[in-house]
Write a structure and sequence with these properties.
single chain; about 675 residues; alpha+beta; GIY-YIG endonuclease; Nucleotidyltransferase, domain 5; 6-stranded mixed sheet; 20 strands; UvrC_RNase_H_dom; RuvA_2-like
């Protein structure tokens, strides 16, 4: 029975129940995990009908599947998240750096501290955030440090520090601080971060006036500075709502097999920033979007009060949801959003919308399509997420909240368009640079460039490396490394001859593609050596050029042919920039290879110089200790487990101590 017969038999037995499915390749590796409202419909849809290119690539690798039935959509949502985190499937949307948002944390210690962290743990600490970037979190912490005297030091010092004398620490190192004092400070910080900064500001203004009346001008100035810092911090948060709720507003767009998700953060009723993630996706768009949202909130104790999600549109949330924006309007950031959300009358209607939004059905066409395929629809996904997280999750159908989601979706579309335009522009510039360079050299076409560089230190461990550029872009799979076999000492010309001979003998023997141009690192001597081997030994007439560096090891100019005639290229041209990239890349590749070889030879020479240490014992030492550094730091007793006596151990340590690595 082949694998397709096995799949057909399994498809016939699929239940009409919600759950998760796991797709496997021919090695038994799980390559995709998905959830379904109806397993039977969803899993069958992969093997029937037509798919886009990305989904076809996924389906082509599926040779088996298994499934897990759940009792509800919520269980399927959570199970999918856990399975993705466990198996890290190749074709799933995986959060990589999206969980590294900064948070403010009040530690759960006898003497708590306020710190900025990117790791959210279940350690009973209080977390506030996420903040849009590290700078915003650090600035907020800096302000709170001035206002609330929690300890600043990581390790308790033996005596009071400068923070105590500045009034920014209670000095638990010097005196007993009651628990009630910390509870009061923690409550004040919590109140401030949850929108109570106006009350704090009024209290500071009152204290400043009292200090000024009592002629404590220095204290009054400190309080005034704190008020200024609060104003400066809050002034950056432009967009306001009247209910001061913490909201995360999601939007997404898809195009050319890529998805972009935008999150607009509203904290204390103020929109502080947005976050954008773009990644390839292989499954159904809305299902993969919900997978992203679920992963984002897993193990995250710092939840907002409300989450707004887009509806499941048939076009993948591509079109804007803002009727006020004209057909030519593009929302590119928070400046446009400020104008859109400026109406107080619209803001006041937020609470009135909630009841309608929570129960609002998705678009009928999208709902029918979801039911047919067995996928989780927008309302079902939102309900499952709300039940799991315990916070309100809405799919707005009208009013201001729908405009917020529309703004997030429109920003997603703009971000994707920008990504593709940049890619197209980069491809045009790189291929254009290669074409222009070919014209400067008198070549009809310049698609494939192969570049060589040699590396050695006073003739030791001589190596060479080759990199390949196709249409101006590096083709890393075709890079090659060479250990120089026949050359003794630092002879760059003979090294070039050997490597060129070895490379192009293989090209002829295996009928590999020939380059349009060969680039060598050096001047006339290196060019002549390469041409001599190519033409006189191999009968190949491939153009050769050399890149000459200046005294600061930077690309200076280009020489072409056996006569080494200079080619005039403007220093600010794309052709010159392409040459720099080629030279830097081949030099990096050669140096990296040389360091690897030099490191291996150092290990060999140091241990082999000790009488009684052969190849077998050297490998045993390195396997046991892990590195030369660890061997050097070991004691004589540590060698006994390898059956090495005190005398030989002493000789090994003396050899490593006397011979320092050359730089």
């Amino acid at each position: 029975m082949n694998y397709m017969d096995n799949i057909r038999n399994k498809l016939a037995l699929l239940p009409d129940l919600p759950g998760c499915y796991l797709m496997k390749n021919d090695e038994g590796t799980i390559i995709y995990v998905g959830k379904a409202k109806v397993l039977k419909n969803r899993v069958r849809s992969y093997f029937t009908g037509s798919h886009n290119g990305k989904t076809q690539r996924l389906v082509a690798n599926i040779v088996d599947f298994e499934y897990i039935v759940t009792s509800s959509n919520m269980e399927a949502l959570i199970l999918e998240c856990n399975l993705i985190k466990k198996h890290m499937p190749r074709y799933n949307v995986l959060l990589k750096d999206d969980k590294t948002f900064p948070y403010l944390k009040i530690t759960n210690e006898a003497h708590p501290r306020l710190e900025v962290t990117r790791r959210v743990l279940k350690d009973k600490a209080k977390y506030f955030g996420p903040y849009p970037n590290g700078y915003a979190a650090q600035q907020t912490k800096k302000l709170l440090d001035r206002m609330y005297p929690l300890r600043k030091c990581g390790v308790m010092p033996k005596e009071v520090c400068l923070y105590y004398h500045m009034g920014q620490c209670l000095a638990p190192c010097e005196k007993e601080v009651p628990k009630s004092a910390y509870e009061e400070i923690t409550q004040s910080i919590t109140s401030f971060l949850n929108g109570g900064h106006e009350a704090v500001k009024k209290d500071l203004q009152k204290k400043m006036q009292e200090a000024a009346e009592e002629l404590y001008f220095e204290r009054a100035k400190e309080l005034r500075d704190q008020i200024i810092h609060i104003d400066a911090l809050m002034e950056k948060q432009k967009i306001n709502t009247v209910d001061t709720k913490d909201r995360d507003v999601f939007g997404y767009a898809v195009d050319k097999g890529w998805m972009c998700v935008q999150i607009l953060y509203m904290r204390q009723g103020k929109m502080i920033q947005r976050h954008s993630s773009a990644f390839p996706f292989y499954g159904e768009a809305y299902s993969d979007f919900m997978s992203y949202v679920t992963q984002y909130y897993s193990d995250n104790p710092a939840l907002p009060q409300e989450i707004l999600l887009p509806d499941m549109l048939s076009d993948g949330a591509v079109k804007a949801l803002m009727p006020e924006a004209g057909t030519g309007a593009v929302v590119t950031g928070l400046q446009t959003a400020a104008g859109m959300l400026g109406s107080k009358e619209m803001l006041a209607a937020l609470d009135a919308e909630d009841s309608a939004e929570a129960a609002a059905p998705p678009q009928q066409e999208a709902e029918q399509e979801a039911a047919a395929e067995g996928t989780v629809d927008a309302a079902g996904g939102a309900a499952a997420l709300q039940e799991w997280l315990g916070v309100k999750v809405l799919v707005p159908q009208r009013g201001l909240k729908k405009q917020m989601v529309g703004m997030a979706c429109q920003n997603s579309r703009v971000a994707l368009d920008e990504k593709f335009r940049l890619i197209e522009r980069d491809e045009e510039r790189t291929s254009g640079a290669a074409s222009s360079l070919g014209q400067s050299l008198g070549l009809e076409s310049l698609n494939r460039i192969e570049a060589f560089d040699n590396s050695n230190i006073q003739g030791t461990n001589p190596v060479s490396a080759m990199v390949v550029f196709i249409d101006g872009k590096p083709a890393r799979k075709e890079y090659r490394k060479y250990k120089v076999r026949t050359v003794q000492g630092p002879d760059d010309y003979e090294t070039m001859r050997e490597v060129i001979r070895r490379r192009y003998e293989r090209v002829l023997k295996e009928n590999l593609p020939q380059p349009d141009l060969i680039v060598v690192d050096g001047g006339k001597g290196q060019i002549s050596s390469a041409i001599d081997i190519l033409q006189n030994e191999l009968g190949l007439f491939i153009p050769v050029c050399g890149i000459v560096k200046d005294d600061k090891h930077r690309t200076a100019h280009l020489l072409v042919g056996d006569s080494a005639e200079p080619v005039s290229l403007a220093r600010d041209s794309q052709e010159f920039y392409l040459l720099q990239r080629i030279q830097d890349e081949v030099h990096r590749f050669a140096i990296t290879f040389h360091r690897e070889q030099r490191g291996k030879s150092m290990v060999t020479s140091k241990l082999d110089s000790v009488p009684g240490i052969g190849e077998k014992r050297r490998k045993s030492l390195l396997k046991h200790f892990g590195s030369l550094k660890k061997i050097k730091e070991a004691s004589v007793e540590d060698f006994r487990v390898l059956s090495i006596g005190e005398k030989l151990a002493g000789q090994i340590l003396d050899a490593l101590k006397d011979e320092e690595p050359s730089l």
